Amino acid sequence: MGSDLVPLNYLPILIFIGIALAFGVVSLLAGWVVRPSKPYRAKLSPYESGSPLFSDARVQFPMRYYVIAMLFVIFDIEIVFLFPWAVSFRKLGLVGLVEMVLFLAILIVGFWYAWKKGALEWD
Questions:
Q1: Residue 51 Cα to chain centre, angstroms
Q2: Per-residue pLDDT tens digits for 10-46
Q3: Topology of domain 63-116, CATH
């Protein structure tokens, strides 16, 4: 009895996929029809800024740039863990509060260590 209804359960998903594909195709076709198509020499250059290249595009960045970027990503991801905790704060009780205080303490110690080592200096 339930097995003949299973394909009907997938119908909304198939309709959603069809609408998404149709929207993508219609958007691309509309852009192709409406866009201006009169290329000129500056427009066909690798960079559309209009100014000629003055150096090689493969410039090496200092290692400090990547260290600061990684520290930003790490601390940013760690802060994201605060949002679910804040939502379920009342359910977690005292144990959840102690765990979050410990988590934040470890995070602050790591930040302090990075600061004292000079990892956040941009020289």
A1: 31
A2: 888 999 999 999 999 999 999 999 987 777 776 666 6
A3: Methane Monooxygenase Hydroxylase; Chain G, domain 1 (1.20.58)
